[in-house]
Amino acid sequence: MIFEQIIDESDVITTFVVNLSKFVSSIAVLGLTGNESLQGAHSEYA
């Protein structure tokens, strides 16, 4: 019983970490594309 509970908790933690990393990477991608478009706009107006 205890062993199963540990496995369940580790699964929850793993799922959380995977979702968190996906979330962070998607934010990073959005930030990078946003920065590139801003730099492009600046270079066009400069």
Automatic annotation (TrEMBL):
Q: Which domain of life is it from?
A: Bacteria
Protein name listed in UniProt = Uncharacterized protein
Source organism per UniProt: Methylophaga nitratireducenticrescens
The organism's taxonomy opens as: Bacteria, Pseudomonadati, Pseudomonadota, Gammaproteobacteria, Thiotrichales
